[in-house]
Amino acid sequence: MSTSLVIPFNLRCLQPVRPITHFQWRNMSRTHAISHDPVELSYTSFIPEGGNATDGPLVILHGLFGSRRNWGSMCKALHRDMPNRPIYALDLRNHGTSPHVTPMTYEAMAGDVHRFIEDKKLKRVALLGHSMGGKAAMAYALSLKKWDVSPGTLSKLIIADIAPSIGSLSPEFIRYIGAMQKIEALPPGVIRTRTDADHKLQPYESDVSVRQFLLTNLRLPSASRAPHQGGESEKAKFIVPLSILSKSMEALGSFPYEFNAADNSVSTTWDGSTLAIKGTKSPYINHKNIPALRAFFPNVQLEELDANHWVHAEKPHEFKKFVVDFLSDR
């Protein structure tokens, strides 16, 4: 099923928050590669004053075209309400400052998350994912038995407005990637500001909030470089690898585990506490795929917010309360 993407204007590129207790950046190689091994992901961490970095962390996974930076304000608010819980916001592969690599599949993304959790020696993890990140989080949870992971590793799962369904992504995604590729192909000097790029996107997307969100991935030519230093030859470029993403649309609409609608059966389940937060104006969780959600995650609790797909940005206070209350319930 094709679905549309609705992105609120307030989900603009948020400046990295600097919590008093702890803040960390991790920048990785941006080289394109083909690897069937998990990659090391960039992240921002919020560590309690007591130094606990491993027990009961909240790990957050963003959606397509997003990054850890988009969750900056929410992370700061969650950290304020849960000061004793470590929080990690990750850049998934091909996003933010994490490596550019193929394949771009949910199996691969789940493997990256598994590596991160293992490398950091995290335990009793609460995993939160929105949209693409939600599918990656579900794929991780459903793969734990296959990987023979300790039962205590994942304690809770939070899915923001996405279901474990298989279908086609909305045509808008293809249109966005094509528009972004055209911007990259423009001669040096044509795109000097975000306003320049926004004008080029307007024929492809009328909603300014969507354009602003896409442009959070734009790297502009350096204004400090003089022409004789090569400044005139610099071109605007997107930090996401558009060629990889354009070839991965089918995989991003898919899901590694199948649901048999005839008898509501699945090949594996994750039986831990699960919270699914649906936007009532969003089609991503609907009556057709809720049976799959309940089959894969028998202990799922479904909540709703009066919002579109970006539930955490449109209703941040209500979303935060759902998360904090869910994690506080032992």
UniProtKB/TrEMBL annotation:
Ranges for domain AB hydrolase-1? 57-316
Cite the InterPro entries for this sequence: AB_hydrolase_1, AB_hydrolase_fold
Q: Which organism is it from?
A: Psilocybe cyanescens
The source's domain of life comes to Eukaryota
GO (cellular component) term, any one: mitochondrion
- An example molecular function term from Gene Ontology annotations: carboxylic ester hydrolase activity
Q: Which family does it belong to?
A: Belongs to the AB hydrolase superfamily.
Entry keyword set: Hydrolase
Pfam families linked to this entry: Abhydrolase_1
Q: Please give the name of this protein.
A: AB hydrolase-1 domain-containing protein
SUPFAM superfamilies given for it? alpha/beta-Hydrolases
